[in-house]
Amino acid sequence: MRVGLVCPYTWDVPGGVQQHVADLAEALMELGHEVSVLAPCDDESDLPPHVVSAGGAVPVPYNGSVARLAFGFRPAARVRRWIREGDFDLLHVHEPTAPSLSLLACWVATGHIVATFHTSNPRSRAMAVSAAVLRVALEKINGRIAVSEAARKTLVEHLGGDAVLIPNGVAVSRFEQCEPLDGWPGDGGAIGFLGRVDEPRKGLGVLLDAFGELGEERPGLRLLVAGPGDSDEVLQRVPEGLRDRVVLLGRVDDADKVRAYHSVDVFCAPNLGGESFGIVLTEAMSAGSAVLASDIPAFRHVLREGAAGELFPVGDAEALARGAAELLDSPERRRALSAAARKEVRAYDWRTVAVDVVRVYETVLLAGNDRSVAVAQRVRE
Amino acid sequence: MFTVADWATAVSVVVAVLVVVSFYVSWRASRLDRMHTRVETASAALDAALLRRGAAVLELASRSELEPASAILLADAAAQARRASNGDGDGERELAESNLSRALREVVDQPGFHEAVSAGADGDELLVEVGAVAKQVHLARRFYNDAVARTREARASRLVRVLRLAGHARLPEFFDMDDEPPRFARLT
């Protein structure tokens, strides 16, 4: 089928929604569907062939920060032309609550429309203020998808109605194979961590306490930490003699992130809570890491009750140290966990998630194929 | 005293107000009309999804690999659901379709069922099909109830009730049923 995807945020700037749309588009094309993506782009020279630019986005204050959005009559005209030329069976707009391209698409289009809601902020002031306008503007949507239970709740609270839940996918193939960073993991073994280092709920402190213990016993063991935040504070927590064995990469780009996963013997996710899904875990599992994670519900679920990675009691540095020691001493156990992780993560792969999205398309189209997407008659240029 | 000019001003103000009000009312009416269309579209999709599921379950029931008790359970539930689809409502169809969901879950999720059906010709394809249509029912019902909720909300407004903007259109009803797909379909 011919699907038109609309992304409200600037294509050139990295972001969760942009990544989601890009990955979904690729997965849909792999399934044999024709896809065109419309997105605001500042630089139109380097776009993949299936992405169409709606022109540049304008920085405006919105929802407590400055967002780059596309609004006004010129982008609206671009949306109309794109719809006319695209001859789509179905339009799939993303985050139509943002005052940008997706909302414009809902306004000018008729026919089958599916929408995915990403925001999960139950107290979103922007959404509370604009709820009345949004209710009307989003009435044409035939099928609504939320990417998480929190996103669904946000949507229901502000706009009423209901949505089906289809989680974000992971581009497993992007993580599968990679060269480790130079000199890693090394003979003494290595443990890895990824996430903001100064966000207490990510639990790096627990891992550092455990490393203080492990590092004394194992002279070659190193700790690789990737993620933004104040590094001095991190080192303060480690005994002085061990500090040169804690390597802080700071903020890493996508390529180095993948390399980091492949650079350690044990990947540790010591989060204290607050995770709704565990995207970091699914990435590590895609890379085939032996995972050691705290036993919070989201992680327990993703790791299949411990079959695809070891679990330890939340916040328990001693248990973490014990679990890590066992894994470091047993290459067979690590290999087994790695194989299990690679197998179980397939459920979260975009290739799987996209099939669920296509099922939504088919359900919406069940009502009859006679109404393909067109420009609303009322609106004239 | 009122001059001719005053009268003209008064009349033109009244006319202007009337024009604005009538535009607003007609916009509200067309909005409501659009919502009713959406409910109808969603209802057609739900109907199609339910019929498809019934057909797929009947096909499953006719497989020779099934033991007779399971086959009868499935065929009976599917037949009841089909009969109820021509009924005049009163929750009869909701009940029959819920029973079909339950029967399907019990039969399909029993140990050994998959292996048995897979062994037959095109067995795997049929299982995938059954899983897909069961999920589709779940999706279609969400979308339908979503449309109904919003339409009922719009029709509850005072303006719509006083001016009878909904016309003769029936107040759409929620479709309440157990639409939980079999376990194997949830994991794929």
From TrEMBL, chain A:
<keyword id="KW-0808">Transferase</keyword>
<feature type="domain" description="Glycosyltransferase subfamily 4-like N-terminal">
    <location>
        <begin position="14"/>
        <end position="174"/>
    </location>
</feature>
<protein>
    <submittedName>
        <fullName>Glycosyltransferase family 1 protein</fullName>
    </submittedName>
</protein>
<dbReference type="GO" id="GO:1901137">
    <property type="term" value="P:carbohydrate derivative biosynthetic process"/>
</dbReference>
<dbReference type="InterPro" id="IPR001296">
    <property type="entry name" value="Glyco_trans_1"/>
</dbReference>
<keyword id="KW-0328">Glycosyltransferase</keyword>
<dbReference type="InterPro" id="IPR028098">
    <property type="entry name" value="Glyco_trans_4-like_N"/>
</dbReference>
<feature type="domain" description="Glycosyl transferase family 1">
    <location>
        <begin position="189"/>
        <end position="343"/>
    </location>
</feature>
<dbReference type="Pfam" id="PF13439">
    <property type="entry name" value="Glyco_transf_4"/>
</dbReference>
<dbReference type="Pfam" id="PF00534">
    <property type="entry name" value="Glycos_transf_1"/>
</dbReference>
<dbReference type="GO" id="GO:0016757">
    <property type="term" value="F:glycosyltransferase activity"/>
</dbReference>
<dbReference type="InterPro" id="IPR050194">
    <property type="entry name" value="Glycosyltransferase_grp1"/>
</dbReference>
Automatic annotation (TrEMBL), chain B:
<keyword id="KW-0812">Transmembrane</keyword>
<feature type="transmembrane region" description="Helical">
    <location>
        <begin position="6"/>
        <end position="27"/>
    </location>
</feature>
<protein>
    <recommendedName>
        <fullName>LemA family protein</fullName>
    </recommendedName>
</protein>
<keyword id="KW-0472">Membrane</keyword>
<keyword id="KW-1133">Transmembrane helix</keyword>
<dbReference type="InterPro" id="IPR023353">
    <property type="entry name" value="LemA-like_dom_sf"/>
</dbReference>
